[in-house]
Specification:
The complex is a heterodimer of chains A (320) and B (105).
Chain A: H1 8-15, H2 20-27, H3 32-54, H4 61-73, H5 75-83, H6 91-105, H7 109-121, H8 139-146, H9 149-163, H10 169-174, H11 180-204, H12 208-232, H13 241-244, E1 246-248, H14 252-257, H15 264-269, H16 278-285, E2 290-292, H17 295-307, H18 316-319
Parallel strand pairs in A: 1-2
Helix pairs in contact in A: 3-4, 4-12, 5-6, 9-11, 12-17
Chain B: E1 7-12, E2 21-26, E3 29-36, E4 39-44, E5 63-65, E6 72-74, E7 80-82, E8 91-92, E9 94-97, E10 100-104
The chains are: A mainly alpha (320), B mainly beta (105).
Chain lengths: 320, 105
């Protein structure tokens, strides 16, 4: 018999942290919590969007767009959950919503799903984790990442590359050959969609997508970069899930926006557990995983401490 | 000369996780016993994509979802239903006799 693949779940079961019955109970799925969450989500979007409408003729439109943008970029959290099929019990609804979210934030859903598969397999492993965010070498690098400029540059490059029918060697590793055309057409359809909207705006003079969608997403993206850094950056670059991922205690509104993804270590332990069951899973695992009680800010204090030399860098051992 | 296959006892039905997937080790092989809506089926337990043990995944009585990447298989036929799973599961001929799951091995 070949060596077993040590998934986070097998690790948790082997550790005795969780029994199989407890795990399976937490894995049960339901459409109800997702539809309730989504309904409130749409209300929040309508509220923040209304602020832009109310502030349309003043400088206040910029903070309004930023606030709306913070909500908009959290479509990533919903898309992420959909790619794990842990939002809705009905599997195809996850695909539909995941693709809609991907269109909103320019993150093609199928490509993201394949990339994210490898992220879960090779979390925090240099050269293997395709979503790895490096611990910056300096404050300059830290703020450069947070500016989202490298993020958008990467996303636009990716979209152009896939539209032209090309993949990087890394992408060829995690996307099966029969899926290549799917990835290319996904990018092409997304680009066509954006161009059609842009053409319609130009033809009609109706620029609402700019003010209610694209500008807010650009303004809000640094917040998403700030949050994404808290998941793994500054944690050791090792395979052990107890070490390489951080759970953050955050305020309820942020937890709502994140679809409970602040319980990130729990999510990595058992990616099949629905978003609404993650707090319960956290109760089982909280003494077993890395928890940042100060939340996102605490995680960044940790990161800043490492990159300014006040505390040892988490990647020092690896670099040495 | 290869030994002729015969029905072999695998596990008591009473010991299965009802309506779920049960991991069983048999002659050095990891097997998954599925209590599907249409009866008991048995397959090799490893996902054909990432080799995780499928018994740790979400099972809805028909489809088993890989715990690692959420690829999907039909637990009745072994068919790969959704990405990233592409290669079907290898199913083993199975039956229930006197409250015992047996496989042809």
């Amino acid at each position: 018999m070949s060596a077993p693949v040590l998934t986070p779940i097998t690790q948790a079961l082997a550790d005795g942290t969780l029994t199989r019955v407890e795990l399976k109970t937490l894995m049960q799925r339901s459409n109800g919590p997702a539809f309730r969450h989504l309904a409130l989500w749409i209300v929040v979007l309508a509220c923040t969007g209304s602020l832009i409408f109310l502030a349309y003729d003043s400088w206040l439109i910029w903070p309004a767009m930023f606030l709306h943008g913070v909500v908009m970029v959290h479509h990533f959290s919903l898309q992420h959950e959909c790619c794990h099929y842990t939002v809705f019990k009905t599997r195809w609804i996850n695909d539909v919503i995941g693709n809609i979210c991907g269109f909103i934030i320019m993150l093609p859903n199928r490509h993201f799903r394949y990339e994210h598969c490898d992220h879960h397999t090779y979390t925090q492993l240099h050269g293997d984790d395709p979503e790895m965010i490096e611990l910056p070498q300096s404050l300059g690098g830290y703020f450069w990442y947070l500016s989202s400029i490298p993020y958008w540059r990467n996303k636009f490059t990716e979209l152009a590359r896939h539209t032209m029918g090309r993949l990087t060697p890394e992408e060829e590793r995690f996307i099966p050959r029969p899926e290549h055309q799917t990835i290319f057409w996904e990018a092409r359809l997304m680009l066509i969609g954006y161009l059609v909207i842009l053409a319609a705006c130009t033809a009609t003079g109706w620029w609402a997508p700019i003010w209610y969608w694209w500008l807010p997403v650009v303004l809000g993206e640094p917040v998403m970069r700030f949050i994404r850094m808290t998941e793994h950056v500054g944690k050791p670059c090792v395979r052990d899930m107890k070490e390489n991922t951080r759970t953050n205690y955050v305020a309820r509104p942020m937890q709502f926006l994140a679809w409970n993804m602040n319980y990130h270590a729990e999510h990595h332990y058992a990616a099949s557990v629905p978003f609404y069951a993650l707090p319960a899973l956290h109760e089982k695992l909280k003494t077993h995983v890395a928890v940042e009680p100060r939340g996102y800010l605490g995680a960044h204090i940790d990161i800043l401490g490492q990159l300014t030399g006040r505390t040892p860098r988490s990647d020092a051992a690896e670099a040495g | 000369m290869a030994r002729e296959k015969t029905w072999q006892d695998l596990i008591n039905v009473a010991d299965l996780f009802a309506g779920d997937a049960t991991p069983v080790s048999f002659q050095g092989r990891e097997l998954a016993v599925f209590d599907t809506k249409e009866g008991i089926t048995v397959s090799l337990a490893r996902c054909t994509h990432g080799a995780a043990n499928l018994c740790d995944g979400y099972f809805n009585g028909t489809h088993i979802e890989c715990p690692l990447h959420q690829g999907l298989f039909d637990a009745r036929s072994g068919a790969a239903v959704a990405a990233p799973a592409r290669v079907p599961l290898r199913m083993l001929q199975a039956r229930v006799v006197g409250g015992v799951v047996q496989i042809m091995a």
